[in-house]
Give the backbone structure.
Amino acid sequence: MFFIPLNFSNISFTTYEARPCDSEGEFLPPGTPPPPLTDKTPDDWTPYRSQVEFELADYLFTKNQTPAHSIDQLLDIWAASLMQAGSRSSLFSDHRHVYKTINDTPLGDVKWQSFTVKYTGEIPEEGAAPWMGDTHEVWFRDPCEVVRNMLSNPDFAVEIDLRPYREFVTENNERQWQDFMSGDWAYKQADMISEDPDTHGSTFVPVILGSDKTTVSVATGQNNYYPLYASIGNVQNNVRRAHRNAVAVVGFLAMPKSMCLFHCQLFHSSLLYILKSLKPGMTTPEVARFGDGHYHRIIYGLRPYIADYEEQVLLACIVRRWCAKCLLHCKALNETTLLRSRLHVDVLIEECNFDTLWAEYGIVAVLVPFTNDFPRADIHELLAPDLLHQIIKGSFKDHLVEWVERYLFQEHGKTQANIILDDIDRRITAVPPFPGLRRFPQGRHFKQWTGDDSKALMKVYLPAIEGYVPEDVVRAFSAFLEFCYLVCRNVLTEKSLKEIQAALAHFHQYREIFKTTGTITMFSLPQQHLMTHYVHCIRLFGAPNGLCSSITESKHIKAVKEPWRWSSRYNALGQMLLTNQRLDKLVASQVDFRTRGMLSGTCLTSVLAALGTCSFLPFFLLFNHDFARTVSRCTCAG
């Protein structure tokens, strides 16, 4: 494969080539090597005293998630064993010592801040709604600092794209899309940025956002949280999907008990306040250091927002059941029309009254999207395709699987339909073991369908229903699965896009069987309708699997659910914020130590090497034969 740089209109290519500069923003001559990443020595473990201390703290806090009282018990046992061996030194004194050492780490330190919001409009003397007197607290971290930490991460140095590009297959010169910077949206943004001579040579840094409510406990009362995540479009999709710290929690939004127009605007106002530090850097270049050691002048931009459909309704300020990306009426979502745009919405709001906007265009006129306050940002364009909730859990689980059951009950009656469904379950449980296939001992009966459940069931569901449903139902499933597997690819070509369009056309053709049999009455379903926008979104943003809400849902585990479990459950959010901050510090320390070549071996091999392994080896190997070869290699190297 080869790469062809994008040609920007009316300017030469050199005006946008992501040139390195010094720390003051002055461009460097071509070929200038980067300055050292750090001036620390290879034996500087600050704030830890040794590798043993760091690895112990990392193990206790990150890997084992040890409770405070268990840390104290372990450290007491460890101290006693050292005293018996004649040593007067010890590691940490107790869990407070461990936590303080982690807190003293300067790397990855982005402080948490908060603000409160309340309704300031007129409150009637009688019949005032309860929410009018509520105060909402929002916690956040400076997204500018979070993004800078990502850019400076040495782990991303060779997996980061500094400028937009177009990628072609060598064999047939066919265009293909993979990572975000290979899409047309990045090109358009860079084209607009390059119109300003002061931004020439700058590096475009698209900021990804994502938000999604999550529940940490159902049995112990209202324990829902609303995290806001951020990433950067420069890192390649495989880095973002692999949870290599390319996605960070930057805020916890307010969770009102009921949703009204004020609470919808509260959401947008909170985002606007949290992201305000990015706004100056969207027009005036700022200097930031990258993982390879070079400094670059950077220009921020808001890029696609990762959200499920309910979140997209909130973000686009539209009425539920309408499409957030196009102008189709909510009762005719099986047709095609023009796309929504910020300019068009602004004109409609000026010309139409509230009722017309609501009924004819699905626009909630009293709400203002947070993107309206940022340059080059259109919320309707920025909404990313969501494989998890639109395709896997939405169209497959909530629609097609449900329609099959509804068809069977309608055609065969309750008793016979249950017999057929039991046989479908039997077929699903009879799937033989095979790599890549999951077994379902209870068939389709899950207490709670997860995305992984749906993805695994998709592989075996089609042959399980064959013979019990009309042939067109099987063909509809086949076309849908073809569409799904195509859009889930890591790399998509022009040929792939044509195949996606063909699969979608076949799905629309064969799904009519559900209407003709009376199973459903219409296909005006937002999740299925959004499938028609996938080819357009792929051209704009690259492969959809780099923008899927499964990325943010996976982040819930480390950023929300596990920190909640570690907490005392009383005023848990403050403890969760501190836990996230400590986790970030440990990850930053690990990257720093590894970059300086200080974590090439285990802490045991490093201690053996420092003590002189020859005199220590016989006693050690007597009790650890499995480690003999490792230590032997260490000794030979010495």
Remarks:
- Residues 1-15, 614-623, 627-638 have pLDDT under 50 and may be disordered.
- The chain is about 45% helix and 10% strand.
